[in-house]
Structure formats: C-alpha cells, structure tokens
Amino acid sequence: MDDKKAENIQILKMSGVMVETDYFVICSCTSFPQMQAVAQSVLDEMEKLNVPLKQQEGRSNNNWMLLDYGDMVVHIFMEAEREYYNLEKLWADAERIPFSDHE
Length: 103
Description:
Shape: globular
CATH superfamily: Beta Polymerase, domain 2
Number of helices: 3
Structural class: alpha+beta
Strand order of the largest sheet: 3-4-5-2-1-6
C-alpha cells in the first residue's frame, strides 16, 4: 500500500468490537488508477503469503474498494468518500494500531 503512495493508512483492531473480522486497514487515494494499483499491490502481497481473498467489492467503483481476507478487511477510498463514511469515527471503540509498526 505504502509503495503505491496510499495516504493516511490506518489500522483498526476490530476484535472485541466486531465479530466478523479482526482488523480493518483503511487508506486514501487521489485517483482511480492509484486505487487500482494499491488494490493490486495488496492482492499480490497476500497471494505471496498464501492468504486467500474471500470477497472483493468495488473493482469498478471509482470511490471505494474493499478486499475481504476474513481476519482482515482492506478499505481503499477516494479521499471524499473516506470522509463521508468516516469508518474511524463509526468504529471509534476500535484500538488504533500505528501503521509505522508494520512497515
């Protein structure tokens, strides 16, 4: 994600807050081609780790893409769409994990 210039990368620990997944990874992009590049980067890295993709949404959506890996869901937003949905506020009870810890 970071290598494709995704912005404002946030990790939310959802365990204890949501049953369906343990982590949300949220990032912003400034263009649809950038969103596609970030999504492809995540898909490639997870494939290398043999982590199967359970569901993918928004591949043709210009505003929000979602990659569901079961224990982790990756949300790739255009900036305005991210502000509108504001998942960080919606899931304010979730623990924030600094992205720099995972670089």
